[in-house]
Every structure is written in C-alpha cells, then in structure tokens.
C-alpha cells in the first residue's frame, strides 16, 4: 500500500511562516537566499529584525530557519565546498545586519566551521529527533503501557481545527507550570490560514465524554522534519497516558504522510530530556553562533593578558 505524500514547498512555507511572525510579533522579516558566485548551490533563511533593525529570534521560534540546497552530486568534497561558500555569504550578511544575540542554527546544520573561522562565539544545545517511518517497537515499554492505558479508558485523538479545545489544554499547562505561550486562538487561526493544513497541524486528545484533555500543534515547514511547536495536557489527566497517545497518533499521521522525521525542539532541561528520551529519538546537537561585540572582545583580551602574565609571556 502506497503512502500518501504531503506536498510541502519549503520556499512557500518559509514565506508564510515569516508572515505569521511579522503579524504576530510586529517584527521585520527578511527572506534571504544566499548563493556564492558561479555556483547553483544556495541556502534559504529568514532574518527576523527587531525594532532596532537587529537580528533576533521571536518567541515561539526554536531556530532561525536555514535550508541548504547543494547541487546534485554524490561527492562529499563538493557539498562541503558549496556549503562553505554559501555559509560565508550568509555570515557576512549576519554581520551586516548586526546582533548581540545568538543566531540559532537548526540541527540539520552541523558544519559550523565558517562561523568559527570568522571569530564568532559558539555554544551548543541538544534536541531529540525521531526518524520516520515511525517504529513504535523502538519506544520505551513505559510509553507503550501508557498508550495502552489511554486506549483502554476510551480516549481518542483527532486532527482538528477546533482551536478553542487546543487553547484550553495549553492554558491549563501554562497555569500549572507558570509560563505563557503568548499564543491566542486568533494566532492559531492566523497561522493555519497562512500555512495551510499540511504545514500547520493541530491534534487533540478527547475523553470518552468528549472533553479535550491534551493537545499539540506541529509545524511542517519542509518534508524532511516536522517541528513540535506547542503541547499541553490538563493536570487531571496526566496519569492516564493521554499525552503519550496524542504524540503516538501525531507520529503515525506524519509518518503516513511521508514526512521524514520529527524534532522535539529542545532537550536542555533534565526533566524535559527525561520526558522526551523514551520515544527513542537520536540526541543531536544544534549550534548557537554569536558575533563578538566590544564587551566580548575586551573580555577575551583580558583573559589573554592574564594568561600571558600567569605563564610569563
């Protein structure tokens, strides 16, 4: 049986995602295509600019979108050369726009040497990524037991446009954990209208009485990997396996549509990492690059002088 293949055009999705952020956060959005002279390889990205015209990362964004497209080749040295050339063009544009904050590269960008060579500060964080086709047998048995519990108690999950139900689950989680997604029902409708049903997917788990108990929204900005955007579960249902059933359903849906994988978008807090690791994903790094400002240069200079004094230089 052939899988249905979802059509997601990366360039169009980036344009629409940029437009959502422009309307939601009142920021300037620059859709960039970086290409070295005499090369057909290119990199698409979005620069979000704050009120001061500097690059920043708006809330509800985990990475700055960066999509590298090499020319057709099976020779690694050519891909590396093309990436180095494209990345050099990109980082020069980053310097031109200026920023005192981290530019967060997605996990797909693993070669950050161009930024190292250009003197950027580098830091690393981690996330879990699942490869599709989805393989439930790779889950921790605890996850499967929780899914079985939810099934036995009559919970069901559907993909939906009922953002009122999604919002209920998110708001209760915010209250319980003391934070705010800054995401309204109107925001969800706007994002859905801009991105479309293939790129903006809302899932809700319902009790047998029809009450929404857990919900998530997943973004599919390209076919290679979906992004776990937001998720919330009502406190009274946390021990009923509804969160696990919700995630399992969404993974099956994404996998059946031919999406290449799923990114949990962060595993940098012990409790968060503990909750995500049983799904059997690969722990992968992603990198934050920052142009050194005057303060950083002075600090580096002081450290170098202290080193020379200590070692008799």
The residue-averaged pLDDT reads 91
Helix content: 25-40%
Ends apart, CA distance between termini = 71 Å
**Structural class from helices and strands?**
alpha+beta
Low-confidence stretches: 1-7, 294-301
Strand order of the largest sheet: 4-11-5-10-9-8-7-6
- Shape type: globular
- List the helices and strands in order: HEEEHEHEHEHHEEEHEHEH
Could you state the CATH homologous superfamily of the largest domain?
Answer: Gcn5-related N-acetyltransferase (GNAT)
CATH fold-level name of the largest domain: Aminopeptidase
Protein name: BioF2-like acetyltransferase domain-containing protein
Organism: Paenibacillus qinlingensis
What does this structure look like?
This protein is an alpha+beta fold. It folds into 2 domains: 10-126 and 285-310, no CATH class; 130-282, Gcn5-related N-acetyltransferase (GNAT) (Aminopeptidase). 38% of the residues lie in helices and 23% in strands. Strands 4-11-5-10-9-8-7-6 form an 8-stranded mixed beta sheet. Strands 1-2-3 form a 3-stranded antiparallel beta sheet. Helix 1 runs antiparallel to helix 6 and helix 4 (141-152) crosses helix 7 (242-256). The longest helix is centred in the first third of the chain and has 22 residues, at 76-97. The radius of gyration is 22 Å and the shape is globular. It starts with 9 loop residues before the first helix and ends with a helix. This is BioF2-like acetyltransferase domain-containing protein.
SSE order and pairing:
Elements lengths: L9 H16 L2 E7 L7 E8 L16 E4 L6 H22 L5 E2 L8 H5 L3 E11 L9 H12 L3 E4 L3 H15 L7 H11 L4 E7 L5 E8 L6 E8 L8 H15 L4 E3 L6 H7 L5 E9 L3 H17 L3
Parallel strand pairs: 9-10
Antiparallel strand pairs: 1-2, 2-3, 4-11, 5-10, 5-11, 6-7, 7-8, 8-9
InterPro entries: Acyl_CoA_acyltransferase (IPR016181)
Protein name: BioF2-like acetyltransferase domain-containing protein
Organism: Paenibacillus qinlingensis
